[in-house]
């Protein structure tokens, strides 16, 4: 070996600190915005993987899959915090559960067949569209007064599951604006979205493990496209920090919460679209 174990640990320390910081930020945003933390974890982890020399062709796949694995834990912590405040709509959850699960599984199949540049484009493009919805003064403007039922009502959650699993997010980025357009109050939409993170992340994580299994380009400690090291470092931090974000969310006005969500997404969208432009 060229380096001693101590030297290897010292070299890995900045990456570990970045992962911990990512987990804390992701946890706070999970509780604050109902986004499962993935909207932070994916872009930051993609950069971190680049620093350690992971092949650009699979970098986004690993970031997306690992993010989804952490959301399995984060969403439980965040959902429990929102449930204590009575902010989860169980009727909407029952209506949307099956379409979200099906969409999530389909998203993994699509993501495993496309390039990292395409995943970056999807991530950035959708984040930019949602940014407009959250920043523009559209409070009180709805497509419907209630969440629709029947076949038509299954389309929005199916797309939430599909694109969320492709982006490595817990679904809040898409389901929060979707639910607010259907007459749901922002705090209730955020709380309900935190539970959707579990429905999206479990099947998607399993799918990414299977589709990436045995790829020789994977970094050390990977189970398929899911990097176990990233999961073990980020997950505890997100679990601890998610209730902090939930507490902060209920201390903010609906308008301030929407603006905070939109401003953050604008930064993320710009970064991912820039990356897509460089790789496509």
TrEMBL record:
The protein's UniProt keywords, in alphabetical order, are: Cell membrane, Membrane, Transmembrane, Transmembrane helix
Q: Name one GO cellular component term.
A: plasma membrane
Write out the annotated subcellular location.
Cell membrane; Membrane
Q: Does the keyword Repressor apply?
A: no
Pfam families attached to this UniProt entry: TauE
Membrane topology recorded in Swiss-Prot or TrEMBL: Multi-pass membrane protein
- Major place of residence: membrane
Q: List membrane-spanning regions.
A: 12-45, 57-74, 95-112, 118-138, 189-213, 225-244, 256-274
Stated family: Belongs to the 4-toluene sulfonate uptake permease (TSUP) (TC 2.A.102) family.
What this protein is called in its record is: Probable membrane transporter protein
